[in-house]
Amino acid sequence: MIEYCKAKLSDIAEMIKLVEPEIKKGIILQRSEEEIANTIRSYILAKQDGKIIGFCALYLYSQALGEVRSLIVSHTHQKMGVGRGLVEAILHEGKELGVQEVLSLTYQVEFFEKMGFHIIQKELIPNPKIWTDCIKCKRFPVCDEVALLKRL
């Protein structure tokens, strides 16, 4: 059985280990232990038998806009609904907080479209603060991620 729960500071080392291969590929941005600790309240974990098998975060830019960040599911648990469960938890939390729209910058376009997101031009992203993370990306300044948005 898969359990979805909020992350704790004691989970950080295991989270970093899980996401490391995707960071090396340039799929997910690297976040330091300190950065994860500072935003630990934004992370939702998927656990099975006490082991983290996936996680993602809801990052808030404003009262109106949030972003699904750092979505990762272990290779052994992909295509099993874990990613869907994580994003659903993030969307539920965003709705409870009063967020109006949730953004995703991703290579997993089909996955997010199935979850009700629609493709938008990056230039139409309503909050310029999102670009502050881009400098950390291996692909900067040539971004090939797709921007998708979902209205809550």
Give me some keywords for this one.
single chain; 152 residues; alpha+beta; 7-stranded mixed beta sheet; 28% helix; globular
- Give the termini separation: 28 Å
Report on the biggest sheet.
7 strands, mixed
What is the general shape? Answer: globular
Mean pLDDT equals: 89
Please state the structural category. Answer: alpha+beta
The radius of gyration computed from the alpha-carbon positions, rounded to a whole number of angstroms, is 15 Å
What is the helix tally? 4
Strand order of the largest sheet: 1-2-3-4-5-7-6
Number of strands: 7
Poorly predicted parts: none
Secondary-structure element order, as H and E? EHHEEEHEHEE
Give the amount of beta strand, in percent. 25-35%
The residue fraction in helices comes out at: 25-40%
Give a written overview of the molecule.
The protein is an alpha+beta fold. Helices cover 28% and strands 30% of the residues. The chain is built from four helices and seven strands; from the N terminus they run E-H-H-E-E-E-H-E-H-E-E. Strands 1-2-3-4-5-7-6 form a seven-stranded mixed beta sheet, with helices on both faces. Strand 3 and strand 4 form a beta hairpin. It is globular and about 40 Å long. The model has no long low-confidence stretch (mean pLDDT 89).
Present the secondary structure layout:
Layout: E1 2-6, H1 12-25, H2 33-38, E2 43-48, E3 51-60, E4 65-73, H3 82-97, E5 101-106, H4 109-114, E6 118-120, E7 146-151
Parallel strand pairs: 4-5
Antiparallel strand pairs: 1-2, 2-3, 3-4, 5-7, 6-7
